[in-house]
Amino acid sequence: MLPEISPQPIAPSRGLVDEFRLGLDAPICLTWELTYACNLSCVHCLSSSGRRDPRELSTEECFAVIDELERLQVFYVNLGGGEPMMRSDFFEILEYAVSHHVGVKFSTNGTYIDAEAARALAAMDYLDVQISLDGADAEVNDAVRGEGSYAAAVQAMEHLAAANFGPFKISLVVTRHNVDQLDAYKAMADSFGAQLRVTRLRPSGRGADSWDELHPTQEQQRQLYYWLLDRPDVLTGDSFFHLSAFGEALPGLNLCGAGRVVCLIDPVGDVYACPFVIHDEFLAGNVRDSGGFTEVWRSSDLFTSLREPDSPGACTSCGSYDACRGGCMASKFFVGLELTDPDPECVLGNAEPLLAAVAAQGGPLPRPIQDHSRPGVPLPSPVTLRQTRRR
Amino acid sequence: MTVELNQTFSLDPQVSLRPERFGALAYHFGNRKLSFLKHPDLVAVLEQFDGQRTLADALVLVGVDQDRWPSFLAALSTLETSEMIRAA
Predict the structure, then answer these.
(1) Which of A46, A116, A265, A372 falls 20 to 30 Å from A36 in CA-CA distance?
(2) For residue A76, is it left (φ>0), alpha (ψ between -120 and 50) or beta?
C-alpha cells in the first residue's frame, strides 16, 4: 500500500519512480498489523485474522519498533490488524508513536469506537482514523464483513462526527457486489465530511477462498477505471495501477512499492514485502532479529532482490507494460501465476490463457501460511445475495 | 499561489525533511501531506530559508544558475500551496 499523495505537490518524474524501484534506505511508510485478534471474520481478510497469536509483540517491543522508525524518519505508519483496538495497550502505542514523530493512520472496523473512544481519538494530534466498510448498505457490506458490521461502522462514524474528530477516512475494498454502489458510497462519505478511500481486493489470506466470487469482472474494472479517473480526490493507496493499462494513468506513483518503499510488520514482528503477501516466500525477517527492523529493511536477501530491475517476463511484448508494470505481485502469486506473468486482472485479458492453464493443471495453489481464523465461527457468506446489475 | 524572488520564507515548523539520494522527502505532520523534493539543490535552497533571507539570495547562495530559477519557482509555489513553506 503506497502513501497517499494528494494533491501531488511535485509530480513524480520517471526518474523519481526509478529511484523508488531501487529502494530507499527506509520505507516511506509501512503497514503494521498490531494483532491477529478480531471480532469480525471478513471473507476477504488479508491476514486471516480472528485469534490473537501468543507470540505477538509486547508493549515494550512495540515501543522499540517505534524508536527505530523515529530514527529512520519513517513519518507515519498504517496500523491495522486484526482489529487493532482489541489490544489493551492500543492507546498507549498510539500515544507513544505520535509523541515520537511517527504519525499514525489506523484502520478499524469501528466496533470499539464508542463516544468515549471517539473523544480520546479527537484529542490526539497526528492521527488519522480509517473505518472499513465494504458496501453502501448493510446487505452488501454484511455479506462480506459479517452481520451487524455495517451498523457498527456507521455508529463509529457518528461518534467520530459527534466528537468533532474532523475528516476521517472510510475505506472500501472494491468487489463485484459493491462496484455499482460507488456513487452511493461517495455520497455517504460526503455526508460525514469523510474522505473516501477505495482499494483493490487481493486473493490473499481468506481472500484466496473468496477471490473467484468477489473480484470485479473485466467490464466492472473498466467502469471503476473511469470512475476513479473522474475523481482524483478519491484515495486509492495506489491500489489500482494495473488499471492504467486502459489508457491515461491514474493519479499516484503507479508502482509496486513492496520491499522498495513500503513493507508490512505483522503482529509477531515478521517483516513481509507488503500487506498482501503473508507467506514464507515474501518473509524478509523479524523485528526481533539482532539488527532489528533496520537491518531487515536494508540487508535482507528478499528486499535486496526486490530492488533489482524488474523483468517484464511474459509481458515483454505488451505495449502497456510501462503503464501497469505487470501489476500486483501478491495477486499473481496466490492465484498460481509466476511473478513475471501478467496480473490475473490484466485489463487486456493477457492472463486468461495462463489462468486457464493453472486451472487445467489442477495443482494446489499457494496457501496462506498462517491462519488465525477462529475455529467454529462461520464466515459471512460471500454468496451473491443479489444479482449484480449489468450496464 | 506564485512565489516571488524578493519574498522571504520559512519552513513550516510541522515539516520534517528526510534526506534521500534524489533530494529529500518532506512530510507535513499537520496536514499529512508528503512531498518529494526532487533535487538536492532544492533541499539546499529550503535549508537557506530563515525568515529573513530573500528567495533570490537563497538561490544565489546555493549557486543555482539563473536559467534554472523558473523551475525552482514552480516547485516552491507548489510547496507553498501545500503549506510546506510559508512566506514571512
Answers:
(1) A116
(2) beta
Tell me which residue of A287, A302, A359, A267 sits closest to A46, measured CA to CA: A267
CB distance A9–B16 less than 8 Å?
no
Crossing angle, helix A138-145 and helix A149-162, to 10 degrees? 110
Per-residue pLDDT at A387 exceeds 50: no
Query: Quick one: cell of A292?
Result: 532489528
Residue A247: which residues within 8 A CB-CB, separation 6 or more? none
Query: Using alpha carbons only, what angle is made at residue A147 by residues A217 and A136, rounded to the nearest 5 degrees?
Result: 50
A195 forms bridges with which residues in the sheet? A169
The partner residues of A384 in beta bridges, in order of sequence, read none
* Domain range enclosing B38: 13-82
Nearest CA to CA, how far is B31 from chain A (Å)? Answer: 9
Task: Give domain status of residue B73, yes or no.
Answer: yes
Reported as half-sphere exposure (CB side, CA atoms, 13 A), residue A334 has a value of: 27
| Contacts across the A-B interface (CB distance below 8 Å) | 57
Q: In terms of Cα–Cα distance, which of A31, A49, A33 is closest to A370?
A: A49
Q: From the CB of residue A233, how many other CB atoms can be counted at a distance below 10 Å?
A: 10
Q: Is residue B87 part of a domain?
A: no
- Residues of chain A contacting B36 with CB distance shorter than 8 Å: 9-10, 12, 16
Residue B78 lies in a domain: yes
Res A117: pLDDT: 97
Min Cα separation B29/chain A (Å): 6
Q: At what angle do helices A59-71 and A292-299 cross, to 10 degrees?
A: 50
- A322 — pLDDT class (breaks 50, 70, 90): confident
B11, three cell numbers: 519552513
Give the residue with greater pLDDT, A1 vs A78.
A78
In a domain, B31, yes or no: yes
Question: Do A36 and A81 contact (CB within 8 A), yes or no?
Answer: yes
Nearest to A165 by CA among A112, A129, A111: A129
Contact indicator for A277, A256 with CB cutoff of 8 Å: no
Q: How far apart, in whole angstroms, are the C-alpha atoms of residue A155 and residue A141?
A: 14
**Mean pLDDT (whole number) for A213-223:** 97
Q: Do residues A116 and A76 make contact, with C-beta atoms less than 8 angstroms apart?
A: no
Q: Is B66 on the interface with A (CB under 8 A)?
A: no
For an interface test with A, the pick among B3, B25, B85 (most A C-beta atoms closer than 10 Å) comes out as B25
Q: Which of B3, B34, B71 to mutate to test the interface with A (most CBs of A within 10 A)?
A: B34
Domain count, chain B: 1
Model pLDDT, residue A1: 60
